[in-house]
Every structure is written in C-alpha cells, then in structure tokens.
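Priority: medium. Attachment 1 of 2:
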C-alpha cells in the first residue's frame, strides 16, 4: 500500500516538473523575439503578451493546486520515521487476563498480538497469515491467540474509535465478529460505520454507546499503556511464549510486522516440541 502511494506521488511530482518547465519555456519564448524583427503592430503584440501571461498564470495555479493534492496524499511525518527496533524480551511474564482469545483457552503456547485496526500491515496479517495459523494451530488446540489493543492515533486517526468499538463488542460476546468486520473494510472506520457494524452484529446499542464512552475506552488505553511499558511501538507486534500455571505468559520470541506463515511456524514448532 505504501509503495503504491509512493509511486503515485513520484509520478505526480514528475508531471508537475514537466508542467513547470513548459511554463518557463513559454515565458522565455514570449520574450525571445530579436529586437527590430517584429513587424506586427505594438497593440497586437501587447495583446499576445497579455494572453501568454494569463495562460502562464493559469498553469501556475494548476501546479499549485496539484502540489497541494500531492501533499495531502503524503503520510504524516510520524509515519515516515524509521520504525523502532523490535522490543527486547520482557523479563517478567505478561498477563493476558480479560483479553479476547482465539483458539483453545488451555493451549500452552500463546501468541499475544498488539494491533491497530487502521494499520494496513495488521490488515495484511489478518487476511494473509491468520487463516493459515487458524488452520494449522488454533483449530488444533495447540496454540491460542490473544488480542491486545495498540491504536496509533498520531498516524491512524480512526484507530482509537475502532479499538473501543471492538472492545465493547467483546463485552457483549462479539469481539471476533467485530474484529473481522473492521479488518474486512479498513476504509470505513468512521463513527456512523462503527455504529452500523454494532447494529449489524445485533448489539445492544445503548449499552454499546455507554461502553465506548467509559469502560471500553479505559480498557483500550490500558492495553496501549502495557504496550509502551513492554517497549512495543509498532503494529502488528506478536509476543510468543508459553503459558505459566498462574495464567501469565513467559515470552520467548517477538515478531513484528505482517510476517508470513513460515515465519510463525519457525517460531511455534520448537515451542510445541517436547524438550528432550
């Protein structure tokens, strides 16, 4: 997605440079008549110069307008920063109490995902990698996935509302249904669309709205605070490890970005293999 946008902006800039060069050439041409060789009446010459100037002004305004459109396509400065290096492994086990779970709740190997519903890479993971993980591990009961919220509103302005909506859908037993709906159409995360999804899932709307304004919002912010404490700053990030007797998870690997199934398999298989 980012690469396609970059190509579009590059092409747009190249086009504007061509237009600017054309404007400059026309301006120079209008003044490039050798002294003494012009035989037309001076009034006619002034009319032509005035016409050329109007055309140049129109072209310059077009250049200015298109530059503004290109600036609007560029991601915010925060999105252009170099992504943080993967976080170091937590020294203490990570709690997953109260977080939505996909797969067997008793599976010993756990993937803790921190994600943002407006993040295109999180969407890529859900669409391209998660189905294979579900088929090979989650459905088999050997691995469970736990979801934690990490909206990044500085680059994804609708991510916080989407996270609150998913959290509150979960409090009515429909987290994963809302999760799948949000990632299925990441272009429609405005408030009316979120309410439409809630209605479509059969949620109690007064309860949903109250949750979004209160406990749901607080829960999302707690997850984001946990992520910062763990040094997680990019989405998606996956903390992978083994469940302990008290329900916490001892993290042994961290995977960041929308990695393919093979990457996860290489991490999961050793954890599932009994120690010799």
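Attachment 2 of 2:
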């Amino acid at each position: 997605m980012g690469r396609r946008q970059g190509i579009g902006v590059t092409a747009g800039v190249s086009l504007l440079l061509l237009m600017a060069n054309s404007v400059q050439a026309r301006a120079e041409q209008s003044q490039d008549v050798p002294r003494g060789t012009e035989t037309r009446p001076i009034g006619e010459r002034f009319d032509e110069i005035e016409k050329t100037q109007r055309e140049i002004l129109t072209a310059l305004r077009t250049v200015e307008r298109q530059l503004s459109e290109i600036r609007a396509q560029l991601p915010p400065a925060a999105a252009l920063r170099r992504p943080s290096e993967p976080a170091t492994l937590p020294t203490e086990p990570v709690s997953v109490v109260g977080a939505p779970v996909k797969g067997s709740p008793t599976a010993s190997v756990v993937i803790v995902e921190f994600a943002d519903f407006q993040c295109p890479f999180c969407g890529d993971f859900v669409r391209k990698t998660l189905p294979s993980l579900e088929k090979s591990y989650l459905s088999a009961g050997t691995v469970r996935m736990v979801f934690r919220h990490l909206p990044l509103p500085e680059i994804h302005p609708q991510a916080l509302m989407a996270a609150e909506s998913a959290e509150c859908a979960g409090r009515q037993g429909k987290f994963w249904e809302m999760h799948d709906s949000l990632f299925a159409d990441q272009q429609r995360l405005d408030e009316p669309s979120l309410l439409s999804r809630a209605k479509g899932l059969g949620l109690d709307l007064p309860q949903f709205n109250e949750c979004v304004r209160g406990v749901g919002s607080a829960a999302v912010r707690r997850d984001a605070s946990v992520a910062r404490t763990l040094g997680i700053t990019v989405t998606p990030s996956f903390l992978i490890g083994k469940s302990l007797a008290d329900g916490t998870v001892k993290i042994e690997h961290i995977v960041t970005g929308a990695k393919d199934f093979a990457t996860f398999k290489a991490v999961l298989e050793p954890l599932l293999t009994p120690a010799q």
